[in-house]
Amino acid sequence: MKSFLKQIDFDFIEIKNLNFxxxxxIWAMRIWLYSFDKKVNPNSRIKIGxxxxxxxxxxxxxxxxxxxxxxxxxxxxxxxxxxxxxxxQTEYYLLSILSNIQNRNDTIGKKKLSKLLAKSDIYDGxxxxxxxxxxxxxxxxxxxxxxxxxxxNTPSHNNKPHTLH
Length: 165
What we know:
Elements lengths: L19 H18 L5 H9 L6 H15 L16 H14 L3 H8 L5 H20 L9 H5 L13
Helix pairs in contact: 1-2, 1-3, 2-3, 3-6, 4-5, 4-6
């Protein structure tokens, strides 16, 4: 199992405080993970939801990047409560990668991606992240850059174990 994140308490990043672009991606990621866990193909459901915002082309790239993340990390990744109101570490990290790429910080995006994926998968993963970020931007869905330092330096609110999801 690849350890890719510092232990951070993410129970203070509420989904309701994210912007619409971020919420849309979180919805798609969670549908994908839920479907993966149930051994159901998530692509048609995600594509239908994203098509309402002219974003259906990102469903294939999302599928590919999520598969790469699953392959490269613990199977704990997809075990999560489907109605969880807080952002998980992995969700935050993927949003951060996508927002950095969208905001032309490719070097930072690729560096963060290298913490999720094996060296041999970075090229493919980066290509999919570029596609997702570009499609979002082309349709005026802008992802904000969030400071990792803010999150890395925030004290823990509780000591419960965190499941990557």
